[in-house]
Specification:
Rossmann fold, two-stranded parallel sheet, 14 helices, binds iron/sulfur cluster, about 55% helix, Tyrosyl-Transfer RNA Synthetase
């Protein structure tokens, strides 16, 4: 137990939570909440950087995301869970950071140009999109976070956050904000149903709130080893996304049996997928059950409100220090 250290993490409400989000982040939150002073937020302001033209449904998405997070086992009595826009300090500190951050620091963030190219159907030629790493820096700095769980691809953002905080502290000549460390996550990567990274933009996700029947139907439609046309063709499980799911959701013995049966052409892909869907649904059954206990909209609103109150106490203190140091 290391509750003297503070951990901060967030998730964007760009759609329903899917299995990739669960394995990539939320599953670990359930452990972190026991080990750290944990702040978890639903990053609705970040969502606006790409959804500003069509924000309809954002409120409902936030609420369903909160329900999923709680269903996954995050305990609002342990972790402080809140909506980012309910804590106005995030926007205010973002503004202060934007005053003193050299523009090239933002322009050189590797994901900036990549994302603009990848999301041609969105007009991302906005300050909000260019400045979103600064909003991230504000999110982290406000809670004086010691650690932030990140994947390897997000390390440049963390480095920028550290640079922004260093520059702020240097300019005001006071250690107002703590420099956070990256906590590198090393989860099983859960692929999408087509074998690519699971992502809403690829349309290859399995939403957490799907019913067991819907999940089974999705698994039955997954791509398999492309060279296995007939049941009599020996397969190569290592190239098959369904087998990757078996590895995560099935027992080690069953995984070995399936691998041997696939290589020996003793099992058909339909039967193999059925087995996979059953293992997946069994794994998610406790989450499905907990989701029902968090179905009251009023309860979810109260949890978010209570989380925001607790967050404001910490964020307000940090922001007050920052403003004082800037003679505001
Ligand atoms: S038998 Fe299973 S592991 Fe082998 S190719 Fe078919 S779905 Fe994939």
């Amino acid at each position: 137990m290391n509750t003297t250290k503070t951990l901060l993490s967030g998730i964007q409400p760009t759609g329903r939570m899917h299995l990739g989000n669960y394995f990539g982040a939320v599953q670990s939150w359930v452990t972190y909440q026991n080990d750290y002073n944990t702040f978890l937020f639903i990053a609705d302001l970040h969502a606006l950087t790409t959804k500003y033209m069509s924000p309809e449904g954002l409120r409902e998405t936030k609420q369903s995301l909160l329900q999923d997070i709680l269903a996954c086992g995050v305990d609002p009595k342990k972790a402080c869970v809140f909506f980012q826009s309910d804590v106005s300090m995030h926007a205010e500190l973002h503004l202060l950071f934007s005053m003193m951050t050299p523009l090239p620091w933002l322009e050189r963030v590797p994901t900036y140009k990549d994302k603009i190219t990848a999301m041609q159907d969105h007009d991302l030629n906005t300050y909000g999109f260019l400045g979103y790493p600064l909003l991230q820096a504000a999110d982290i700095a406000l809670y004086q976070a010691d650690v932030v769980p990140v994947g390897r691809d997000q390390l440049p953002h963390m480095e920028l956050t550290r640079e922004v905080i260093r520059r702020f502290n240097h300019l005001v000549q006071k250690p107002v904000f703590k420099e956070p460390e990256a906590l590198l996550t090393s989860h099983d990567v859960l692929l999408g149903t087509d074998g690519r990274k699971m992502s809403k933009s690829y349309g290859n996700t399995i939403p957490m709130s799907d019913t067991p029947e819907q999940r089974s139907a999705t698994v039955m439609s997954m791509v398999t080893d492309p060279n296995r046309i007939r049941k009599t063709d020996p397969g190569t499980p290592e190239v098959c996304p369904v087998f990757a799911y078996h590895r995560i959701f099935n027992t080690a013995d069953r995984v070995s049996e399936i691998a041997a049966a696939c290589r020996g052409a003793e099992i058909g892909c339909v039967a193999c997928k059925r087995d996979c869907a059953a293992a997946l649904n069994a794994h998610l059954a406790p989450i499905d059950e907990r989701r029902l206990t968090w179905s009251s909209t009023d309860t979810l609103k109260d949890i978010a409100k209570d989380g925001a109150k607790r967050a404001i106490l910490v964020a307000g203190e940090s922001l007050a220090k920052a403003k004082k140091s800037l003679h505001l």
